[in-house]
Amino acid sequence: MFGTATKITIKAAMMLAVVSGLATPAFAAKPPSARQLAQLCGQAPIVRVVENIRQPVVTTRKPASYSKKIKAGWRIQGLAELKRSFKANFQWEMLNTAAGSCLRIKSVQVQTGVIQPQIWINPRIRRNSCEYKVTLNHELQHVQNHNAYIRQFSNDVRRNLASRLRNKSGMVINAGTDTRAAKDILMQRTMDILYASNRSFDAIADSKDRAMDTETNYRREYNICR
Length: 226
Prior knowledge:
This protein is an alpha/beta fold.
């Protein structure tokens, strides 16, 4: 059965873990007890979100997925490459006291909408023709679905990441211990939470895209050109 594939979504949750400095606070008064240290260690980090809604670019470069779609029997009018990815940068804090030491995530910055959307229109379609405009508008609707995903994911991170990381973003360690293994564990905890959030909003956008990419909808859209 032949159809018209108008979109390919490439999903990649990318992690960029940047150690931007270790802060070691001084305790002017009585040093905290072991219990107090655990409470300090369990504090939620500061969360910052850099949300990027990028304008799509129309490209003449044929997407890598084109050949797979052709082999599957699709008649391709256009494709939108939408990479639903994010980056996370970490800043660390070391609490050193007589009761022990704590390595914690002081802050995490999450960047969404990292990669610019790209739209490819089959070059056999004459530019500025009715078919070209319908195809472009269809792909732009996929970009709108993608942008809605970015906003929803960004808002979820702003509102909920700190509370989800409470008691999960710090670790009591022995003084002089190599912190690399502890950092890996704490970063992975954070990334697991981010991946789960990203997947949920990615699924919503995918559902919208699938509702658009049906034979019935294609016929309805292209009927105006007949």
